[in-house]
Each structure stands twice: as C-alpha cells, then as structure tokens.
Model the fold of this input.
Amino acid sequence: MDELYGAGVALVTPFHSDGTIDYLGLEKLIEHQINGGMDYLVSLGTTGEVATLTEDERKAIWKFTAEKAAGRIPLVAGIGGNNTVEVVRQLNAFDCDGYTAILSVSPYYNKPTQEGIYQHYKAIAAATPLPLILYNVPGRTGSGISAETTVRLAKEFPNIVGTKEASGSFDQFSKILRDKPDEFLLISGDDPVTLPMMALGAAGIISVVGNAFPTAVSQLAKLCYENRYEEARTIHNRLIRITELCFAEGNPAGIKTMLSELGICGASVRLPLVEASSQLTTTIREELAKTDIR
Done:
C-alpha cells in the first residue's frame, strides 16, 4: 500500500450557512490539497462530520470527491460505526470507483470488549471491497483497540493493511511496531505526534491541520520519511501554535475557521457542533496574519 505512506488529510465537509453541502467549497478544498502536495485524501472520516450526514449525502460526497480528484491522488473513504450489520451493509453498497482503501473507526459508545472489536472488524474485513485501515480514537469512541487486538487483526486478515492510531499512547505505538507484520502500516492520527511517531517507524499521518496547511504537513511527513529530522523539527515547531488553535474548541470548528479565513470554504458546522467562538476566531485570524506557513 505505497499510496498510504506520507501525509493524508481527513477532509472537512464544507457547509453553507443554511446547513446544505457547499460543493464549490469542497472542490476548492480538494484542489488546495492536491496543489499543496498532499499524498492522499480521506473523504468522510470523522472530521467530515459524517455522523450528521444522510446516506444520500454521503454517497454524493464520495462521488463528487472521486470526480474532482480524477485519479490525480489516492482516495480513502471513511465507513464505520457502532452497528456492525449497518457498516457491512454500507460497504456492500459502496461504489469504490476511484478509491484505494476504507478507513473504519472503532465502534463508539457501545464499549465492546476486545473480542467484540475483533469480531466487528472480522465482519468488516469479509465485506469490504477495498483494503481496510483500522481507526483507534478512544478519546472519542469511549473504548480502544488494544495493541494485541490490532496485531491479531493485522496477522489474520491480509486486507487489513494499517491502523490510524489516535490513542496518544507511545507504549501502544511501540508494541504495534514491534509485533505487526512488516507490511502493516501504523499511521499517526494526531497532528502533534507525527514527528515522534514517524521516528519510531510510523508510515505517516492522516492530518486535520493539513486541511489548511497541506504543504507544511506533507513536507513534514516527507522529511521524516527521509530521516531528515532536523528539518522536520523546524516545521513541527512552527505548527505547534496552529495545531493548538485548531483543536482549542473541538474538531472541526477550529480548522473550518482557518479555512474560512484562508478563503477556501465557510466555517459552518452542523449541530450539535457550533462554530468557533468570536474570541477564538479573532485569535486564529491574528495568528494566520503573522504566519508564513503554507
């Protein structure tokens, strides 16, 4: 899965102020990523507010993204949830034309045991038409995929090709890297830890900050991949404040405010999320005015 090395971005879903999907904004965002050197795009990961989209909206966004990308960049589709049967149904109905892989978040709210998580992904692995990337984000789901379960899945199902790890646990990262099959990819799911994770052996990042700054994020991953850590640290340090502001009031409110300030798409989100506060918006505007990050 060479296409999944380097920097991917979890695309936001642009909305108009009335809550409808802003397809012109989405097209501008896709072009911003491709022109900025991003290695691949993730359409409708959790950053894309997928939980608030209807099935018809999801299908339309996936189709639109594939048409606008037009084979110029690999695409990953986010299809996950806490109802295994429903996730399998969505996978069976998915039009995979133009897509390279599926990213599937670990079941949220239900708090399954590790055996439940294993059986969930076993069913998905049997149904997916494309290679599968696990997504471990316990801070949002309420439960985590252990390193042991990750490695078990990686060894038993050849079409499970990687994991997006947003657990924040370097003990977990180290165990996965120690025990995984050689070809299985560990991918950072947190912008702030991309550099140290890649120093350990991670394949790259699926970024949020990259929505606004694809050149910096993709260059950071490239430098790490080439073991040029002195140069990578310079970019890492310059992104610290931007990343802090991006997540100050939750995701994707912060990154959408940055995209609005950059003139790419609006800041609107769907309830139960709300837009960034006026104070944060002002702070972001001031930070963007003085930064030369691109």
User: Anything to note?
Assistant: The domain at 2-232 is CATH 3.20.20.70 (TIM Barrel). The chain has twelve helices and eight strands. The longest helix spans residues 229-246. The chain has one domain: 2-232.
